[in-house]
Amino acid sequence: MNIIAGAFKPPCKISISLTDGSTRKQVRIKKENGQMVTVPLFQCHDNIVGQVIIEPSNGKRVEHNGVKIELLGQIELYFDRGNFYDFTSLVRELDVPGNLYERKTYSFEFSTVQMPYESYSGINVRLRYILKVTISRNYVNNIVEYMDFVVRNYSVPPPINNSIKMEVGIEECLHIEFEYGKSKYHLKDVIVGKIYFLLVRIKIKTMELEVRRRESTGSGTNTYVETETLSKFELMDGVPVRDEEDRRYFKQQEITVYRLGENS
User: Fold this and answer.
1) Which phi and psi angles does 21 have, rounded to 5°?
2) Phi/psi of residue 127, nearest 5 degrees
3) pTM of this prediction?
4) Looking at residue 246, what is its pLDDT?
5) Beta partners for 15?
6) pLDDT > 90: what percent of the chain?
7) Rounded distance, CA 119 to CA 201, Å?
């Protein structure tokens, strides 16, 4: 059994480290297997600098056709799992074809990297960034190692932030107007608004405000839309008797959510 296990053991160990790894902010993400791990956090135009260390197992010779590291930004649709769309792809060649006999360290740098989209893990899609090291070999499988990292991008408050006005109801029975102070909110913002009861001839049981995230993926017949309620607020209680109509009236409006810079 040990002989069989040893035959499938990689002939070398690959590790990826960042130069500022001890000081860079870390965040927790959930891997595909459900395990929570801590990974480094970057934002657009950051420099990504570090080292790749390759150490042959038991001092054995590792013959290869070159060593490279890639920085990849990928989108994966879960109904097409395993197929990635690369929207960012940068490569640094670390070594020419040859042999490795002992531990070797390679330095790498990706300067002012364009990472315009934030990392995202949703119901039907995920957007991820990785560092990928590949040792190319003949006749046998390449040796590959990955490092995940997260991207979050920050914004300043928008110069124009219009209010939202909506109305809902049924003719001659109910007419309510809603007004929200703005249409763009940062993640720690407060939603402030007003509700005007212009006509009420039915019994109102409750009134709620929900913040929902809508995820749309694919196109044409392969379009999938998922809606998730992030938070719910009860605005008022109506008359505590059964509404004979027992109907729900609602209105929804898309808003913009942005991540506010710490110094903004």
Assistant:
1) -60, -30
2) -120, 120
3) 0.83
4) 64
5) 53
6) 56
7) 48
